[in-house]
Amino acid sequence: MNSFSEAIYFTYDAAINPDLWPEALSKIGALFDAEGAVVIFYKNCAPADFIFSDNLTHAVRVYMDEEWWRQDIHAQRAIESHLTSGDVFSDFTIATKQEIETLPIYVDFFRRVGFGWLMSTVMLPDLDMLVALSLPRAKAKGPFKAEEMATLQAIGRHAEQALRISLRIANLEARETVLIAALDAMEVGIYGLAADQTLVLANLAAREQIPNHFTTDERRLVPVGKEDRGRFQALTTAAHISMADTTPPQSCALTGLNGQRIIVTALPVTDLGRERIGLDAGTSTLLIAQPVERQHMVDPTALRDVFGLSLGEARLAALIGGGLPVREAAGKLGITEGTARIVLKRVFRKLGVNRQAELVLQISSLCGR
């Protein structure tokens, strides 16, 4: 548990300090007795970028120089299976025993760089590419077990939230933009709160959100909707509990004065994060707030967190709620229409509805429509 907390702490350090990602990934790799950890950004059947722990430098160089990505069945089959944020897969998920014993990616590349097994979780579904956090492990250490895959799923949620901030900061800093200007340039609301919900930081998007969604009496950030205040308090409190156990970061939806709803996620702020932004020691929580609905469809992660759905159920519900017939939604998800209807029945049961029209109304209500 201490190793888990340490890995999460370093991950949130890296959220505000992108240069710390190699160290954070090293901590994540050590948690699983892996040889390291890597975040791969995979687009158009080729890796677009990597973030990796220092001990994987040689393996990444060989992977790129010899174009092993052309034979990487892990990334290729994750795409073919329509895996997305929160899905975890390992060798036996995507390959047969015979393939593991015969395919060149295993018997040549893995063997030469000291790998035997690989486990990955998919992240950042809003990017137009496959993004995966992957952990390679030596052959002698044995394949990854189900409980390790569950732990990686929890860590992946934290890493995904940290990357949402980190990638924006890194991209803007590459253009020599100072950090405070980088935060102002983000299209999502970023808030810094003290333990008593006192507002200590708000970027430009957040300041534009405040009049509609929050009051700031006595400098405390409080949702305008009284029915939202208990959930919001629980959200900010849970951000720190999640650093000490396997609880993934949570989200809640808040309703504005005009009926528009935003989804808010809370992240803990580490000591290095406070120093990096120039915040005092009392700052404990960073909030990310963005509209529930984007590009005419509800973010599946919002449906997952608000309604207690699995990610697969949430992806289907988002498409149905966006107006797609079941057959078309199934096609987009790469499943049969029959499977989609089985999943849809589970969604109905969890939301307490009986028809698609009622589901659409629930989702429309979440969006404030």
- CATH architecture type of the largest domain: 2-Layer Sandwich
Largest sheet: 5 strands, antiparallel
**What oligomeric state do these chains adopt?**
single chain
Low-confidence stretches: 173-177
Strand order of the largest sheet: 2-1-5-4-3
- Helix content range: 40-55%
What is the fourth-level CATH superfamily of the largest domain? GAF domain
State the end-to-end distance. Answer: 43 Å
Average the pLDDT over all residues and give the rounded result. Answer: 84
- What is the CATH topology descriptor of the largest domain? Beta-Lactamase
CATH level 1 class label of the largest domain: Alpha Beta
Structure characterization notes:
The chain is of the alpha+beta class and about 375 residues long. The protein folds into three domains: about 1-175, GAF domain (Beta-Lactamase, 2-Layer Sandwich); about 180-290, PAS domain (Beta-Lactamase), CATH 3.30.450; about 295-365, Winged helix-like DNA-binding domain superfamily/Winged helix DNA-binding domain (Arc Repressor Mutant, subunit A), CATH 1.10.10. Helix content is about 50%, strand content about 20%. The protein has 17 helices and 14 strands. Strand 8 and strand 9 (about 220-225) form a beta hairpin. The longest helix has 28 residues, at about 145-175. Residues about 175 have low confidence and may be disordered.
